[in-house]
Amino acid sequence: MPLYEKFTGRHRDDFSTLEDLERNFKLNIPDDFNYSFDCLDTLASDNPDGLAMIYLSYAGEEKRFTFEDMRRLSNKAAHFFLNNGITKGDMVMLTMARDWRFWPVLLGLHRLGAIAVPATYLLTAKDIEYRINAASIKMLLTTNRFGVVTAMEEALPNCSSLETMAVFGDDIPSGNWVDFDKEFEAASESPIDRTTDKNDIMLLSFSSGTAGYPKMVLHDYTYPLGHIITGCFWHRCIEGGLHLTISDTGWLKSLWGKLYSQWLAGSAVFVYDYESPTTKFSASDILTKLADYKVTSFCAPPTMYRYFIKEDLSKYDLSALQHCTTAGEALNPQVYSVWLKQTGLRIFEGFGQTETTLSCWTGYPWMQPRLGSMGLPSPGYRMVIVDEDGVEVAAGVTGEICIKTDEAGGGKPFGMFRGYYRDEQLTETIWHDDLYHTGDTAYRDEVGFLWYIGRNDDVIKSSGYRIGPFEVESVMLEHPAVVECAVTGIPDEERGFAVKATVVLSDGYVPSPELTLELQNHVKKQTAPYKYPRVIEYTDVLPKTISGKIRRVEIRMRDQKLKNSQSV
Known about the structure:
Distance between the termini: 71 Å
């Protein structure tokens, strides 16, 4: 019996209809729930030799960990933190890339009741300084592989709350750095007493954001069980299987797909630490690992699937792969169709935010996805589409996606955030009148499926029309010349705003007036003519957040600045 049944009372295959799932999916969460004690220790007791994780480094080093290994190592990690003055409620920032140590470290912090603060290794000194001061970080644990130590030392003079800096791996820097590996190896394996309850804060995550400073998102100890839908239903992780989600541990997406619910479903996780200062993402490399390690379920962002379908997929034995998912941005229908044709596997989309768990998805076994749709709300998520006054709109009308959280209707979903740390005003701005405002826009069709339009600020208002960037981007990406595309509005005296496409070309294509006209005509043929990009700009790279999301706001600001300079 997979462990998630302990908390749901039913196996996922016992649900036969959507109505059954919505009505009868329940979570029974003990008041003192703590994932390390109630899930990891149970797995280690029931199946001590069961495979929990396969780790593969960029250099080809492989490690395998059982559930008993993880129980033992997480206790050692807890003692390491205790030995360095970390106790319940302390903030510990983890900049660990895809290193295997992240798993026992995170679970050790859960045991203590200390608050884990995941952070990507891509942060600059300015980023690090902001995060440490904003959250009063007490300890930093990092790798020296990506220059984080150098950035940290540059930020250190302005970080008054930081008491301890620890580093793992080779090349331990001189100075005040603690050698994590040395102290971790010497730490006790004895159990740690439980001191937490389910309402204590477990995680603080900085949202990637597309403008302004990142928000500090707080999650309590119910967060892991809120992801049962993620791994057990959406990812369709199987007992004895192996799941791979592509994500740096600096993002909560790694906790969606590299730990909590995968183990609850009985699946091990495959962690491929493929990045180093000299190695980056390679589509053929990832496909090779999927084949060699017989990965059974897989999740990657849409951008990666776009690179996968440019490969000769017949060269890779993907016969073990049973289920594919994607999230982060909307999936282009062309990518879906090509992947399905070449692998026989559908790609199931999921939607969520740093503030939520999986809140909308495709992938119910009895449901045929509607190509390009976000799918249907997750159990427990009562999603509505509202206008600017918060009034629910009719089917087919674009509005903002909101989540109902009134107590009469069941309250907020399990795993949804508690609020923004040290910013009650911002929390109240986006979460009021029993509605959480996501800032994303969509419309609902006649049978309840949601169709993504874009962020509130990304929607283009042109000649009275509301144009979502995703639809135009999807059509552009169907053309073989386009590998990446960002659609924005550019100021226009007649229309208010005109549609602009900023394009990264595929190999073998060069910018030209002829290509621009070809792309414009392509869009006119595939969608309503008023949506075609009247301006096309070519670039080598699109501006992105450190989490890889396109920063359309940066393109808009640059265009507005250019317009202002020309009008002077």
